Amino acid sequence: MTVGTVVVPCRSDPPCDACSILEADTSRRDHGAISSEAKKMVRKRATAPESFTIERANATLPLVRAIVSDFVRVFREVLERRRRLVILMDGRDPDRNDPYHQELVQIQEELDKDRERLQQYVEELVELGIEPPSGPEGLIDFPTVIEGRKAYLTWRLDEPEVLYWRELDVAPSQRQPLAAGSLQG
Asked: Which has the closest alpha carbon to 41: 116, 119, 124?
């Protein structure tokens, strides 16, 4: 359940899988609706860098790698369990006389708890000033300035360090290799 939310806009159209998993209300189009607990963290974000250098982004990677690794693991588990639940619920009358009703309710409750865990990982990244993952590949964005323009340094869970960047309005799949000297300190 999400009460009093702060919203991180979804960068995908149509909304990414992370949006559909993190949202309690699937009619919303906001990426990672953040619980009221995150309001304090968003305020703290003022102390997080508005713009990361490549050195600062790489220095955060040990912590970020741990958070994103946990996020991706739980995200994939939730996605798979949610798909199985949809199959189990297909054609089923949500009647309490169903012998599996209680088990299905328990599965849904576990999914809700895991959604809360995912939200906590998102909140940790937001507190660090980092855009959260947009899906199960663990791709995140560090706000930066490249050649005088706002952009993102991008990193994916399977990469040893930050090696790519992209424009703000460019899809994550369109990221480009970093060129030497392109970042302003």
From this structure: 124
Q: Tens-of-pLDDT digits for all 185 residues of the chain?
A: 222 233 343 444 444 445 444 443 333 223 343 344 443 444 344 445 678 999 999 999 999 999 999 999 999 999 988 888 888 777 776 666 777 777 888 888 999 999 999 999 999 999 999 998 877 889 999 999 988 899 999 999 999 999 999 999 999 889 999 986 555 44
Q: How many helices (H) and strands (E) does the chain have?
A: 4, 6
Strands laid side by side in the 139-146 sheet = 139-146, 149-156, 164-167, 176-177
pTM of the full structure = 0.70
Give the CA radius of gyration of the chain: 18
Q: What is each CA distance from 61 to 20, 38, 51, 152, in whole angstroms?
A: 27, 22, 16, 15
Residue 59's contacts (CB-CB under 8 Å, 6 or more residues apart) are none
Spatial CA neighbour of 136 closest among 87, 69, 81 = 69
The token pair at 77 is 């588990």
3-state secondary structure 112-159: HHHHHHHHHHHHHHHHCCCECCCCCCCEEEEEEEECCEEEEEEEECCC
Q: Give the residue extent of every domain in the chain.
A: 6-49+62-127
Among residues 148, 185, 136, 144, which one has the least CA distance to residue 168? 144
